[in-house]
Design goal:
The structure holds two protein chains of two kinds.
Chain A (H helix, E strand, L loop, with lengths): L1 H16 L9 H38 L9 H13 L12 H32 L1 H14 L4 H12 L2 H26 L3 H9 L4 H39 L4 H10 L3 H29 L7
Helix pairs in contact in A: 3-11, 4-5, 4-7, 4-9, 5-7, 6-7, 7-9, 9-10, 9-11, 10-11
Chain B lengths: L1 E14 L2 E14 L3 E5 L6 H9 L6 E6 L2 E2 L7 E4 L11 H13 L5 H14 L15 H14 L4 E5 L7 H18 L2 E6 L2 H7 L2 E5 L7 E6 L8 H4 L3 H17 L7
Parallel strand pairs in B: 3-8, 3-9, 6-7, 7-8
Antiparallel strand pairs in B: 1-2, 1-4, 4-5, 9-10
Helix pairs in contact in B: 2-3, 2-4, 3-4, 6-8
Classes of the chains: A mainly alpha, B alpha/beta.
Chain lengths: 297, 263
């Protein structure tokens, strides 16, 4: 605020005094203050979680450093699995690869499964949202299907696809499609009649209505669904990979358990958590960008 | 000389086996370039009548003809200015108008001509300065101006305004009324406007259609407003014809057709 006031004053004042350089002086004074402010804000957001994490690590260390402890303490995890932590992308061949690479293979499956789920969910959801009878008929079925846990689909999909790769992708799809579908349908149903009237008066055809009115109007709902969906698909991939094998992060955990590498499991859990968090924030950020304007109304 | 003919229109809604009569025996002929106000208490079916003309609702019996063609669905030749502007919030002012222009003139005008036409209409409502703003960034009066620009950009045969200034404060409303009078003078649009405001009706219209209370609302009376155009708000304040028209509408609304439930 002070900077703008100064700038407003300077052009008029020199006209009388005929020297402008003197008036520019107070400007830099306000800059460090705003710098300090942003630094302070960052600190206010970063320091509390760091303190909590440090405390948790200390408690964990104390609890697990007794001789008969069944789980490794943080210090033990570091000595056991340091390479996994600081070198995520090593590749020693024969499936001995870093966790970063494993996460990438899992993410690739999620991308395919969730991508299909997003496409199908939005399209089918839009159709269902348009028709009150389709909504009434299908909604109870969806509400039941969406509560089926991801792993419960796995035997069926293994039987159907007879291959672990497509089965895992199918499990991701079937887990994450419901929230996308249901949210899209609700969003489409909640499109204000005014927007529909605008479309009617302009005689927009179905195709134009879908892309120009329906999708943008329902976008906040769609992104809520996508955000829930991406979280669920990340849940599903780990579970599915534990059973289907391969190179993913889920299988890594199962493999580590079978060879009693508990420290590796703990590192993998941290990886999964962080990646899931990033996925969630990524979809939320895309949603915030796409729906700017819409949600503000 | 009839441009729009509304011929003995009835409208009823059936819900759960119960029929509610909204409009009964509505007939009126409107000439080209005429400005008509429809006034009446809330619930008298004014908006239903406008929706019938717009084609957003179907008539139960009777017919509506525009230039000899029966109205049987909505279309850009009967553009509507909605009460709450109905701009699409994810589009800028320019894009909102462009949505209409691209659809209506997508084949008949080139890209440059369409741009020209959009800017011309935004100029007409004095909104070209805000063309890149989104509806959430401009005031209520500005949104309504853009709504009017969008409707005008469809080059409608008839402009339908559904309580266009109802949600605005008195000062903004006066500005917009002047803007609409100005545009009407320039373009000679045929307009039908719904309003609650007696002054607005007298100031803007050539004829005022006064509706009786529902259910089964009818046209109670049609009042001619024999005031010269252009009309100046300030000059009219003490004009005898103006005051007489005003009194006639007030008497109709508050003496002969008092709104019973509100009492």
């Amino acid at each position: 605020m002070t900077a703008t006031v100064q700038r407003l004053v300077t052009p008029t004042a020199p006209a009388a005094t005929a020297n402008a350089a003197v008036f520019a002086l107070p400007k830099p004074a306000s800059r460090p203050r705003s710098w300090q402010k942003t630094l302070g804000q960052i600190a206010a957001n970063v320091i509390p979680p760091l303190v909590v994490i440090a405390l948790a690590l200390i408690i964990w260390e104390i609890l697990c450093s007794t001789p008969g402890a069944s789980l490794p303490a943080p210090s033990r995890v570091w000595t056991d699995a340091a390479e996994l932590i600081y070198s995520p992308f090593f590749d020693y061949g024969q499936g001995d690869i870093g966790l970063g690479l494993r996460v990438l293979t899992s993410l690739q499956r999620v991308a395919i499964g969730f991508g299909i789920a997003a496409l199908v969910g939005v399209t089918v959801g839009a159709v269902i949202g348009q028709s009150i009878w389709a909504m009434r008929g299908l909604d109870p079925i969806f509400q039941i299907l969406r509560t089926v846990p991801p792993l419960a689909w796995l035997p069926l999909s293994l039987a159907a696809f007879m291959d672990s790769g497509p089965s895992a992708i199918f499990v991701i799809f079937i887990t994450s499609v419901w929230p996308v579908l249901i949210n899209t349908a609700v969003g489409v149903r909640n499109i204000p009649q005014d927007y529909r009237n605008v479309a009617l008066i302009l005689r927009l055809n179905q195709f134009e209505f879908f892309f120009k009115i329906m999708i943008p109007a329902a976008a906040p709902y769609i992104f809520t669904g996508l955000r829930i969906g991406v979280g669920l698909s990340w849940l599903a991939i780990v579970a599915a990979e534990m059973l289907t094998g391969g190179v993913g992060i889920g299988f890594f955990i199962w493999d580590a358990w079978n060879s009693s590498r508990l420290s590796d499991i703990i590192v993998a859990l941290a990886y999964i958590g962080v990646v899931g968090f990033i996925l969630d924030r990524l979809v939320a950020a895309i949603g915030a960008f796409v729906t700017r304007g819409t949600s503000a109304n | 000389m009839t441009y729009l003919r509304i011929d003995n229109v009835d409208k009823h809604f059936d819900r759960g086996g119960v029929r509610s009569e909204v409009l009964k025996g509505i007939s009126i002929d409107i000439a080209r370039g005429e400005v008509i106000s429809i006034i009446g208490h809330s619930g008298c079916g004014k908006s239903t009548l406008l929706n019938l003309i717009a084609g957003l609702t179907e008539v139960s019996s009777g017919g509506i003809m525009l230039e000899g063609n029966e109205v049987n669905g909505p279309g850009p030749e009967r553009a509507v200015v909605f009460q709450n502007h109905s701009l699409l919030p994810w589009l800028t002012v320019y894009e909102n108008v462009n949505l209409a222009v691209a659809k209506v003139f997508g084949r008949s005008k080139t890209g440059a001509q369409r741009h020209e036409w959009i800017m011309q209409n935004l100029d007409l409502v004095q909104m070209s300065h805000a063309k890149d703003k989104r509806p959430t960034e401009i005031s209520g009066g500005m949104k309504q101006r853009v709504g009017i620009a969008r409707a005008l950009a469809m080059q409608p045969k008839i402009l339908l305004l559904d309580e266009p200034f109802g949600a605005l404060d008195a000062l903004t409303r006066a500005h917009l009324q002047d803007a609409v009078m100005d545009i009407q003078k320039k373009l000679g649009n045929t307009m039908i406007m719904i309003t609650h405001d007696v002054d607005e009706a007298v100031l803007l219209s050539d004829r005022i259609v006064m509706m009786t209370n529902g259910p089964s609302a009818r046209i109670g009376e049609i009042l001619d407003v024999p005031l010269e155009r252009p009309r100046q708000r300030l000059d009219l304040a003490a004009d005898r014809t103006y005051l007489k028209c005003r009194e006639a509408v007030l008497k109709f609304l508050y003496e002969r057709h008092r709104f019973v439930e509100a009492a």
